[in-house]
Design brief:
By secondary structure, the protein is mainly β. It has helices at residues 4-10, 40-55, 185-191, 278-288, 303-308, 363-366; strands at residues 21-23, 26-35, 72-80, 83-90, 97-98, 111-120, 125-136, 142-155, 161-164, 199-204, 214-219, 228-235, 244-252, 257-267, 274-277, 291-293, 298-301, 312-316, 319-323, 345-346, 349-352, 359-361, 369-374, 379-384.
Length: 393
Amino acid sequence: MLSVASLLALLTFSIMASPVKVRNSRVTLPMTRRLTFSNVTDLLRRDEARLAAFSDSTYDRHAYVPLTNTGLSYVVSLDIGARKYNLIVDSGSVMTWVGANTPFERSTVGVNTGKPMSFDYGYGSFRGTLFKDTIYITEEITIPQMQIGVASESQGIAFDGILGIGPTAAGLGATDSPEDAIQTVTDRLFKQDTISQPVVGVFFQPSVMDQVTYGELSFGGADPYLHRGDIEYTRMTATPGSSWGINQRISYGTTNINILDDTTGIVDCGFTFLYVASDAYEKYKDLTGGMVNPANDLLRISPDQYNALQDLNFHIGEKTFSLNRNAQIWPRFLNHAMNGDINDIFLIVKSFTGPGFNFINGYVFLQRFYTVFDSGRRQVGFAQHAFTDSFSN
């Protein structure tokens, strides 16, 4: 049996650096998948730490809110200032910052504003200074004088920093002063007329063992080549922090047995699992027959129960988005890192008590549906893609 260290060494996914493309006022960036957790305790603790930040009474919904690095991260490479950095894509943050591993090197036009930045976020922390420098999307497409956090001290981040794609209120971000307003890369590309609308489309491909896996960010609109059918949009709802909040109902099976009434929650790629309120979790547990595995706190089911597993349905807007039985389980080739056997079957639904919301559609949900974050119209959209119904787990 492979050790966890050997397994993780084999499972470092990457994508060949395809050119950044500009299509009809859209700018697309490839993403690479990286596995950064060493064991299940590490992975679960990171989700819990991110959730704790929402529960903190001192948490400022307009503050800088970075990602505590999850075990399954999507990373983009960007030239900022005078160097290239690998940044974790975070839909729950509005800030872009660097310097966690590779030191920041400013360009000849870079400016140190001298303004200190400091925050703690559960599993780690960031302390540094606000700079202004150029972000190079391509050689031709740049964002001059972009506000960038530069770390002098950080913990809990395995890469160079964060690329925040969270929602900002009319582009004002983290401060009330227009000249100091924190803007996302999406905001800036829109304001300088590089893209036609402040929208970013996100594509994640489910984990597979024998294929290159990848993702894509599409600034300015959805990439029509990466989704199937129309995109269903739903309005944003108020939630804590720099989060994309929506309303949805969750049901189970062909008869749509209600699990969670229509309620508010968040869509956040910074969380690995799918979280639902405790009463909804108990209903799902009973319907699937899952039993909590003490080794990793996940529900485990038998092969027969897996074969009987029915769709988990998310009723969003006027459409229903379903996770088939395979989409509801943890990738089995990663079971060693979850303190399990290769033949174990673990469900990806977990229980939580949210501070003002009742579900979190994390990475395991987002990898099955093309997602559009539209800060201009204050809405979030979903559509199926080529891997929605794949049996890759």
